[in-house]
Amino acid sequence: MIPEDHPRYHALVRREKIADSARAGIVAMEGVSAHGRGETFDYLIGERTTESALLAEKTAAAMLLAAEHPVISVNGNTAALAAEEIAALQKACGAKVEVNLFHRTEERMEKITHLLEEAGVSVLTGTFERLIPLSHDRAICLHEGIGSADLVLVPLEDGDRCEALRRMGIKVITIDLNPLSRTSKTADLTIVDELTRALPNITLACRNPDRDLIASCDNMKFLHAALDEIQSRLSHALD
Amino acid sequence: MIPEDHPRYHALVRREKIADSARAGIVAMEGVSAHGRGETFDYLIGERTTESALLAEKTAAAMLLAAEHPVISVNGNTAALAAEEIAALQKACGAKVEVNLFHRTEERMEKITHLLEEAGVSVLTGTFERLIPLSHDRAICLHEGIGSADLVLVPLEDGDRCEALRRMGIKVITIDLNPLSRTSKTADLTIVDELTRALPNITLACRNPDRDLIASCDNMKFLHAALDEIQSRLSHALD
Fold first, then answer.
1. Do the beta carbons of residue B139 and residue B133 sit within 8 Å?
2. Beta sheet of B70-74, edge-to-edge order
3. Which residue, of A48, A222, B66, B178, is most buried by count of CB atoms within 10 Å of its CB?
4. By C-alpha distance, which of B14, B61, B60 is closest to B38?
5. Could you tell me which residues come within 8 angstroms of residue B21 by beta carbon, excluding any fewer than 6 positions away?
6. What ipTM does this complex have?
7. In chain A, which residues have their Cβ closer than 8 Å to the Cβ of B36?
């Protein structure tokens, strides 16, 4: 048991959740080390939602509500960490939720779908087809889901897929703690924040969306703000 | 298969090695995410040995050769990534090698010992006792190993243990990619470099040790140099 007054309580709980979910076959082994990589970036931005990340989250809410066919793409790590937060966001913005895995097996697809449904998510089902121009299994999606989406929210995405979605003319919002990743640089909007902090902020902003934020959205500005944040924290880190 | 001309080939090979070793029961699930955390720091220092890290490695060689009872403490991640590099260093500096695990089970102890021996390491055996003042299983060590060491090289260490060893009057050299970790700040000497790059550099320096480096060793200087390196790389990262 991690004591609740531990200064890094939430980070340690998430770390344990990822390890447990890997043992349960929900998170892929590659997802465990990916979580670790993100954890370092979270530590560097101070394990909190920065002002610019909050603005990105409000922008994401406006974009989700303005889209005609928004889809939330969920992988193993997202399901393990934030099934309930996904359910709440789906209720707030009406997006479809589709499971999409890099390390895809039928068993993992079923486990993750079950976990999401238990948390109250309505998970899209149907016949999966290879619709995204990619060689790996993330190409496989549902025609009535990502296949016909005009906007996809993809937390914890890989760079290839983000590029492929954009080439298909789909708008991409990502949640990525690494402001230097290919995904971050390629997405229309990058939220540099930890998943379980970002999702409730987007959900909350859906109550009072500000459509003006869409036109003024500048992804590189968000990435620079995150980097500045890290830089300024590092400059005092050994004082 | 990862193509050898991939710009991040070595990092991807290590990532795969850690995942495979976790599936084989050598690396603990917690070790997989710890590897991910380190990977981000390596990415930030440019996945190469910096000038100051090389100086720290030369200093480590001199300290290992000057010690009376040097011990290399090996955990699951270290064995998975660098069994051969440990064997070469042991030959070069004559240190004892002891297996010490945070997530300790007899099965893992045996698997790791076997892996090291296969790579040519002479692994210390005997009756394990709880000799380090710590509540967790890293307290358990060998009287003729860490229990009577004057210097311990502990790659990929946790903060608690580093402090406990120092309180016992043992000099600690660590290899840690995070220059801000408690271990880095507590150790007598921190090598901020990736394990499989650091170990061969120490081994090489054992051929021609420079004892003057020991007296001039300033751990905080090494940490500041690593942080400066990260800062300077980040300041151009989005150009």
1. yes
2. B96-99, B70-74, B151-155, B171-175, B189-191
3. A222
4. B14
5. B27, B76, B77, B80
6. 0.93
7. 32-40
Buried b (16+ CB within 10 A) or exposed e, B133-154: ebeeebbbbbebbbbebebbbb
Q: What is the pLDDT of residues A129-183, one digit of tens each?
A: 988 888 888 889 999 999 999 999 999 877 788 889 999 999 999 999 999 999 9
The two three-digit tokens of residue B125, written as one number: 């055996």
Residues of A in contact with B231 (CB under 8 A): 231, 234-235
Q: Within an 8 Å CB–CB cutoff, is residue B223 touching chain A?
A: yes
| Sign for the pseudo-dihedral over CA of A23, A28, A29, A31 | negative
Are A36 and B40 an interchain contact pair (Cβ–Cβ within 8 Å)?
A: yes
Contacts for B140 with CB less than 8 Å, ≥ 6 apart:
B100, B104, B128, B129, B130, B131, B132
Secondary structure element (H or E) that encloses residue A72, with its range: strand A70-74
pTM for the model stands at: 0.94
How far is CA A212 from its chain centroid? 23
Tens-place pLDDT, residues A33-66: 999 999 999 999 999 999 999 999 999 999 999 9
**Could you tell me the end-to-end alpha-carbon distance of chain A, in angstroms, rounded to an integer?**
32
CA distance B173 to chain A (A): 19
Question: Which among B91, B79, B168, B85 is positioned nearest to B132, based on CA atoms?
Answer: B168
Over the Cα atoms of chain B, what is R_g? 17
State how far the Cα of A22 lies from the Cα of A179, in Å rounded to an integer.
Answer: 26
Picking from A36, A39, A234, the nearest residue to B230 by CB comes out as: A234
